[in-house]
Each structure stands twice: as C-alpha cells, then as structure tokens.
Amino acid sequence: MKKKGRDGPPSGRTTSDRTEILTSVIQRPLVLKKARFIVIKGRDDGKEMVLQAPLVTIGTLPENSLVLTDPTVSRKHASVEETSGGYVLRDLGSTNGTFLDSVRVREGYIQAGSVIRLGQTEMVFSPLEERIENLRSSSDQFGDLIGASLPMREVFGILERVAPVDITVLIQGETGTGKELAARAVHAGSRRAAGPFVVFDCGAVAPNLIESELFGHEKGAFTDAVKSRQGAFELADNGTLFLDEVGELAASLQPKLLRALDQREVRRVGAEQPVKVNVRVVAATNRELEQEVKAGKFREDLFYRLSAVTIFLPSLRRHKEDIELIAGHLLAGISKEAGKKLTGFSPEALAALTAYSWPGNVRELKNVIERAAALCDGDRVEVKDLFLSQGKKTATFEGLSGKTLEEIEKAAIYATLKSVSSNKTEAAKVLGIAYSTLYEKMKKYGIKE
Fold this sequence. Notes:
There is one protein chain. The chain is α/β, with parallel strands linked by helices. Helices cover 30% and strands 21% of the residues. The protein has 14 helices and 21 strands. The protein has helices spanning 150-162, 179-188, 210-215, 232-235, 254-263, 289-294, 300-306, 323-338, 347-355, 361-375, 395-398, 405-419, 424-431, 435-445; strands spanning 19-21, 30-41, 48-51, 55-59, 66-67, 78-83, 86-91, 98-100, 103-105, 107-110, 115-118, 121-132, 141-142, 145-146, 169-172, 197-201, 240-244, 265-266, 275-276, 280-285, 309-312. β8 (98-100) and β9 form a beta hairpin. α12 crosses α13 (424-431). The longest helix is centred in the last third of the chain and has 16 residues, at 323-338. The protein is globular, with a radius of gyration of 25 Å. It starts with 18 loop residues before the first strand and ends with a helix.
C-alpha cells in the first residue's frame, strides 16, 4: 500500500481494502462491505439478513445483530468480524459449540458459501459489496461544510450516503479542515439526530484522566473520585460519539476502546459490571493512521474497526476555487454576530485570500476574517484589513534571523496562547499538536497560563 502524502490520500488501493473516498480530481468508487446470512436449517429456516457492520454477533438475545429463536443456540453464541485478512468466525463461549463446514472451531476464517452451524441452526455466509461509482453530490454544502469544487462535492456525496447508515466513520485531514463540522453533519443526517452528539478530544485530556473521561468512574475509584460519573460513551448513548484526534490515544487504552466498540459496553473505572451503550462512533485524526499501524503505534484491529468508511478532507490549498464561496459564507455569519453590515470583500482582498497558502486551512481563514471584520471601518473588507504577508519578507520574518529553534518555538507558543486568550485546547489545535505535547512544552519553556 502506498503512502499518503501530507496533502493527499494514499493511492494504489484495491477494492479488497477498506472503503476510502479519495479527494482527487479522479472519482473513485465507494465500496460498502456487507455480510449476508441465510438460515438453511432449523427453527428460523428461510430467514435472511444483510448486515453492514464490521462485527456481527449471533445469538438469542435481542441485542445481537442476528437474533435466532433456536433454543439450542446460546444467548450470545458467536460473532463474525471483518478483519484486514478477511472475515473471522469466533465462538463466544457457547454451550453447544460453533461449527464451520462441519468442523468445530473456536476461531476460523470463513469464505463465501461457508456453512455455519450453531446448535440445530445452519446458515450460509456470503460477503457482499455495494459499489457506488458516482460519488459527486449536486450540492455545494453539507451541514456547515461549504464547497463547490470537485473534491468537496465528492466528500459531500459520500457523507450524504453514509450519514443515514449506522456505520463507523473515520475522517482524516489536516488540522483546521473541518473534521468536527463533518462529524456534526453526519450526526444531523443520521437516524440518531435527536440523540446527543458528544465530543471527546483524545489529545486534549491529561493521559491519567482519559480512561475516566471516556468510560466514566465509580465513587472512590481513585483519590479525586468523590462521586460516580458517566463517561463520554454513556453520555452519547442513543446518539453519536465524536472521537477527535483518535491517533493520540495511548496504546494502553486502545484495547479498551476496541472492546467498547466490539461489545457495545463500557466498564467504568472501579466498576465490577459493564454498562451497555448504544453509540455510533465517528473518529477523526490528522495523523496517517495506516503508517501508525505499520510503526506499531496504533492497533491494526482498532484501525479497521474505526475505518469502516474513511473520508479524507482536502486541505484548503487543494481547493482554492472554494475560498471565495467559503469566505463569503463565513463573513456573513461573522458580521451578523458583530452587528456590522459588511457587503463582502474588495477584489484585491479576494486576490490576497486566494494567493495565500493557508497552512491552518479553513480554521485559519475563519480567524483571519474574524480579525478583518473587527478592524474593517468600511462596508467591505479591504486587503489592508487581512494582514497577510503573501510570502514577502516581513518584520516578523526578519526577526527570526539569528534565533534558535527553541526560541522560535517558545515565541510561537506564547503568541498563540495570547491570541486565543490562554485556551490551551484551542492553542494546541492552532499549532497542530496534541494537548499533552503543548502542556509539556509549556513546562519546558516555563510558560505560565
């Protein structure tokens, strides 16, 4: 598998890989993987189900993906999981055992046409693929995401298709490209829209508190646990949990997140019994998770669980033709909030916005427009209000000469904290680093809040 560059998605993928939406000018098909089960013997003879989920549980309990009425089948009998190597059938500690093509197995790979026997029930398994060739949306907006370019219309097209389907989504892209906006739009377009949308930033919580914040804790579980508390999973029950910067999650917590996704249950810190949760997960990261997997920094099974569908949000410099549209949309909202009547941008200002490289993407564009709207003393934003250097030498650039990298880094952190009123979470996002990294660098340089 080829590497993905900083500005673009990986290429050279095949339909055997996980679903990807590539934001290039060449449209790629969307392949949604499903599993079909047809009961050919037993009390449920003739029952057929097509399930679109990376993990299917089978048993007599109503909470299973595939529910059987055969009394010789255990309450939670077996599971079928899609992995990087294919589909795997696992026995879940059943009473009567799980048989694959007449052979009793604890775990084994299954193929199209394989016969699974649970108790007195036999069923045939078949993997299916729904291939969607035309991804392009006819709209230039999805939720609060704006763009008329081909890359953005392809993103909108896939978001429109996956939002109503209760499937896990992984959103990848540089800092500031709008990953949280995409997640909120997926939630709003889903069957869970009336439920909660809970944001959990894996890079913004101190490492020793992440497990408690994510899964909750019981009273007395640790020194400061003066009362029981729900975690993000429980708070998102019957809704959507957005795991932002999931690539920052510590290796020790990755198995627990995987279990929560697999078993649909969480165990609070200090609790003896797990709590059932009904949550759709949308995750986001600015890291190249496939490379993190290869480097041993991120679990492969967790990656495949999160990336049932992967969407790549393009950097703003990859779709500069949308800058005028996005800037106009942002200015309308900002000027309304500020109580100003700004009609738009001068031609020179628009040219300056288009020429700029936008390393901070749409978030940086919004910050620039907010500042320009505040400074503007006319009815439209002029180029002088933007304070964009356009790559020319400025006093700031000249001031870097002769300074060490540590001095420059310290100055950048200090200036960023000052610009966001000492909000460390926001400063970490602007700088494109994890909250924990910012915290350590502040300690290193002696920067106070």
